[in-house]
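Notebook B, p. 112. Complex prediction, attempt 2.
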Amino acid sequence: MDAPVLRLEHLGKTYRSLKALDDVSLSIAPGEIFALLGPNGAGKTTLIGAVCGLVRKTTGKVWLFGTDTDVDPVTPRYQVGLVPQEVNFDPFFTVAESLRIQLGYYGKRADEARVREVLEAMQLSTRADAPTRALSGGMKRRLLIAKALVHRPRLVFLDEPTAGVDVELRQQLWAYVRKLREEGTTIVLTTHYLEEAEELADRVGIIDKGQLLLVENKTQLLEQMGERRLSVTFSTPVSTLPASAESFGARLESGGLRLTYSERHGRPPAHRLLAALYTAGLPVDSVEMERPRLEDVLLEVLRAPPSRERPSPPAMR
Amino acid sequence: MNAIGLRTLFQKEIRRFLRVPGQTVFSPLVSTVLYFVVFGSALSNRVGEIEGLPYVQFIVPGLVFLGIANNAFLNTSSSLFIVKLQGTVVDLLAAPMGPMEVLSGFIGGAMVRGLLVGGLTWAVGALLAHAPVAHPLLTLLVLFLSAYAFAMLGFLAGLWAEKFEQVNFWPTFIMLPLTFLGGVFYSVKALPGFWGKVSLLNPVVYMVDAVRFGMLGRSVMSP
Ligand SMILES: Nc1ncnc2c1ncn2[C@@H]1O[C@H](COP(=O)(O)OP(=O)(O)OP(=O)(O)O)[C@@H](O)[C@H]1O
Ligand SMILES: [Mg+2]
C-alpha cells in the first residue's frame, strides 16, 4: 500500500459525556473511494470535521498526506476538498462568484476556465450569474460540490453529497466521482443511499456510536457477509421438496407456489439448488436472483458488531 | 502565509458591504446629516461656542469618529455572524488559512467600511460647516487605529453572538452609551461631578478628543 493520504490513530471526540468518536484508527490509500456508513448520529460527520478542521478532536492523531495536523494544520488543506452535510451558501454572491472566492481561499489565482469547467460538470452553467439564494435545494448542493472540487483537491470528503439531488444528476455525479478517482483523487464518502456506496466504494467502513466497527474491501465484504436471495415461482403448488433440495434448507412459501433460499458465505451456491429442482422435475415457472446488498450487511453488522478485539488483517486497516 | 486567500477574503468583505450600500454606507450618512442639522444648526445658536469653537465645528470630529467606530464594528460583527448563521464559516475553517489570514481579512474589510463612512461624514461636515484638518497625518493615524480597534471589538462580538439578539446587544448596550458619553456632542469637562469622573474612564472620550485635536488643533483634555 502506498503511503496513506489520510491516517487516523486513536481519534476521539467527546461532547460533554457523549463519545461522538471513540478510538478510531484508519488509513486511506491514495486513489481509493472509501465509504463511511452508519446510522444517524454514528459519528461520520464528526470524523470528517475532525480531519478538516471543523471539529476540535479530543484525543488521537490525524495525518494528512503524511503531515501531522497538530504540527501543521494549514498546509495539507490546500489539497483537501469538503462537501459539508449541511447546505450553506453566501447570500451576497452569485454562483460563479462563490466559486471564484473559493479558489482564492485555496490560494489559487482567478481561473475562469476552471470555474466554467466545474459549473459545467455540476450542470450549473446556466445559473452561473444567479444569486445563490435563488437556487433550488438540489442546485445548492451541486454548488456545494462544485465549491469542494474547484481547486482540484487530491482528497475529497463528500458528506452525503447526493441527498436531495435528482436521479439523473446522481448518476452523473457517480460517473464524475469515478472519473476523479481515475485521475488519482482519493474520496471519502458518507451516504445513507447504500446503493451509492455499492456503486462507488472500493472499501467500506461501518461506524456506530463513534466506534469504527469494521473496515473491509467492499467486494470481499459482500462475498463474506452478503446474501444472495433466490426465489423460485412454481406454476402449480408444490407440497414437498425432494430430499436433494430439502438439504439446502430452502423454504416453501405461498402454499407451495414459491421457494426462497438465501445463499450466504459458507452455504452451497444457489445454482446447485436450482439444478436439484430441475432434476426433480418440479414445475419451475420463473427464477429471480437478488445480488448481495450492502444494506443487509450494514444491518447485520449493526445488530451484531464483530468483536473489536479481533484484529483485522493488516492490509485492511 | 496564504496571501491570495487573505486578499480574497478582504475583497469579499468589501464587496459584501458594497452590495448593500443603502444599509452599510448611506443609512449611516443619513443619520450623520441629521445630527448636523439638529445638533449643529438648530442648537448651535443656543449653545454658542465650546472650547472656543463654533458648535457645528466642535461636533464634526466626533461624528467622523462615530461613523468609523460604528461601521467598523457593525461590519465585522454582522459579517461574522451571517457567516456563522449561513454555515459558510465551514468554508473558512476548512480552507488553508490560519487565524492571521482570516482575522486580517475581516478586520481589513471592516476598516475600509469604517473609513469610507468616516470620510463621507467628514465631506458632509465640510459642506455644512467649516471642517479644517489641522494635523492630517495625526488625524489619519488616530482614525485608522480607531477603525482597527472597533473592527476587532466587532469581531469579538460576532464570535460570541449565537443569536440575532446578541448581535445587537453590543451596539445598543455598550457602543451607544460609550459613544454618547464619549464627548461627541459636548465637552466632558462640562459634565459635573460623578458623571464627569466616570467619563474619564471611557476610552472613547480620549479617541474623540484625539480626533478633535487632529482636525481642529484643539482638545478638551490636556494630552
Ligand atoms: N456540536 C455538537 N455538540 C454536541 N453533540 C454533538 C455536536 N455535533 C455532533 N454531536 C453528536 O455527536 C454524535 C455524532 O454526530 P455526527 O453528526 O457525527 O453523526 P453522523 O454519523 O454524521 O449522523 P448523520 O447520518 O445523521 O449525519 C451525535 O450523537 C450528535 O448528536
Ligand atoms: Mg452526518
